[in-house]
Amino acid sequence: MSDKAIAQWLVEPPPPDVQRALKRLAKRQDVHHVAVMPDVHLSRDVCVGVVLATHQTLVPAAVGGDIGCGMTAAAFDASADILAKGADAALLLDRLYKAIPVMRHRRSAGVELPADLEARALSSPELEAKKAREAALQFGTLGRGNHFVEFQADEDNRLWLMVHSGSRGMGQAIRRAHDSPEGSEASQRPFGIAAESDAGRRYRSDVRWALDYAAGNRARIVESTRRVVDALFGVSLCDDTMVSCHHNFVRRETHDGVQAWVHRKGAISARVGEPGIIPGSMGAPSFHVVGRGCASALCSSSHGAGRAMARSVARRQISTKRLLASMEGIWFDQRAASRLLEEAPAAYKDINAVMRAQRQLTSIARKLRPILAFKGT
User: Left, alpha or beta for 219 (phi > 0: left; psi -120 to 50: alpha)?
Assistant: First the structure.
């Protein structure tokens, strides 16, 4: 397959290693279209910020491990001014720490998995055992890294909530179960699974479970946050404003009259009129968008700003002082600053440049500025 199979919306030319990865991907058997989003960056096997269409093959690497990771946003019936005082922001952060665990609940908390997820079987005894051990303990929790609960203000200074989380360790386990033998070299891994084979049907079933788990996980975090804010400030979350979207998933879609398996790894669906959420870094604006249905992008858009630095590079090159300066005016737990260097605004691309690069893919419905960031550390 020629390079012409790669459609790109870029802020700047990608690094050589990303370009090589994209070319290798486009030449793979059964790949008939690759769309590259402006937040593209290197990742194992398939870059983040890539949309891939195949005819008959499911590619777990083109979905990634955090299956169903995505965003949920909703507005409060309040002005953002309720978080103007440092004392109120500190109290909110303290209550969020208590209400929303990072990584997992304590076993003594007695948490349970929602009945619909508990009742649906995963495809192997190993995955069922993982579900029994871990699924409830991680449900309604934040992961480390770029997952967050953020409070934001729109152009009218209305207070909004934005949550980023996914399928936690369950998605990773599903990826490993269907991807390849443990420890195998990249050159030895099978590229994908025949979609209509028994293995393909098992993967699709597990992906559907992970998508529902991820959406339910975010809903539980939203509900926990709703209760905290109501108790502290007496304001309500407005359910009719809620928007949610996945950015790591695969589904059957029709494009130009042809059915395909469309894989999105770090990209959201952006069909005509479809609402979506594109976050910036924790020190930059975020956007609510509406899809334009761009056919050559497989009706997709970026899922965020995208990393400008690998995590290891950010930890070496960004100082705590620089992070604190870039977060001026935004409440967050400064005690954790040294552990958040890889999430500093400087570690990410300019979200405004990303949005300009994909004007063909989405229109902006709302721009939001960050007020308070709660991150897992």
Answer: alpha
